[in-house]
Amino acid sequence: LEDLQDAFDFCYKVHYLPGEDRTRDPQYAQQVQALQAKLQTLDRQRREMLAQMQQLLGRSETLQDFLLQELGAWQERQQRACLGAPMDTHLRPLETWFTELGQGLFQLLQLLRALEDLRQKVTYERDPLKAEMPLLEQRLRELLTYLLKSAFVVEQQPSMPNACKRPLVLRTASKFSARARLLVRLHDRNHRMEAKIYVDRDPPKIKGFRKFNILTSSSKTLLAGDSPQDGLVCDFQYLTLKEQKDSRSGKGSKGIGEGPLAVTEELHLITFTLAYAYCGLELELETSTLPFVVISNNNHLSSAWASILWFNMLSNNPKDQQFFSKPPPAPWPRLAEVLSWQFESMAERGLSQDHLLMLAEKLFG
Predict the structure, then answer these.
(1) What is the tally of structural domains in the chain?
(2) Cβ atoms of 180 and 154 closer than 8 Å
(3) What is the phi-psi region of residue 97: left when phi exceeds 0, alpha when psi lies from -120 to 50, beta otherwise?
(4) What is the pLDDT of residue 229?
(5) Which residue numbers in the chain have pLDDT < 70?
(6) For residue 3, is it within any domain?
(7) The 3-state secondary structure of 52-80, one letter per residue
(8) What is the CA 356 to chain-centroid distance, rounded?
(9) Mapping DSSP to helix (H, G, I), strand (E, B) and coil, where does residue 51 land?
(10) What is the CATH number of the domain that holds 105?
């Protein structure tokens, strides 16, 4: 396309002299005719290229829909794995697919910029680049933005090192870790990518809902030298939580911690944000953990773990921090499955039908 354009531009500057009356010159008429043919070829090529790009964007949208289905299935597997189910939660295949789609879309963006440079040099009436490129670029940027925002996920849910296969239950003043990953493994090495974490960025409006501070550093820079095999990971380790004391709760008063929800039914979220930049596209990406329970005493551990089981069994909304305001009952087949996962995670074998029948009789008579 660039060669065609340069040939047309050269002939235009050499042969076409506007303002001169050379209509009777047969050679000039031939030159103008040849020039017109070159312009028609150039116009056709531009239209064909734009049509191919539209087609590629359509295919990319279809592919992205498939990827989001795969990502949703992975998130369900991760949620079940937190409850002890034997699930494969490796992200490498998803990371490969997301990265390749991202690469393709960023290449299209660079191609659009190259086309814009060509348009700046040569344009004409009814130039398809002038008419179609702004909409094409907008569609491409929207697709890239959606892909990148979907690709930022929590790879490891908050858990304490000695959690005994029970993540999502944290104790104040005890260390815990959490990790997020960007599945599109492309980044600008000259741009400092900073990741930050927040506890309850948008807290629910529940009276007495406890607030926590992260004592250790809550921001981290992703280094450009990270090996491509490691991917783009925000790994926060050795974090600790401390409850904010409310100044209004004086001595002898019940204090702000006395809300309508029990401590073990109060659900908290950690949000990761990442300042992302690549090929001129700058975004703030955000992802949240599954809700977790914060306790200050080991006596609450069993009750807190029951809350985590109940929420992950029954909630359709992973950000529903008010779930226990009206907790739904669990159907026995669902609870039986989760109890079997629990036994399997601890004892390497699940519960048989006889075991489950015995438990059901104890629970329901």
Answers:
(1) 1
(2) yes
(3) alpha
(4) 62
(5) 16-25, 163, 223-229, 246-260
(6) yes
(7) HHHHHHHHHHHHHHHHHHHHHHHHHHHHH
(8) 39
(9) helix
(10) 1.20.1050.20
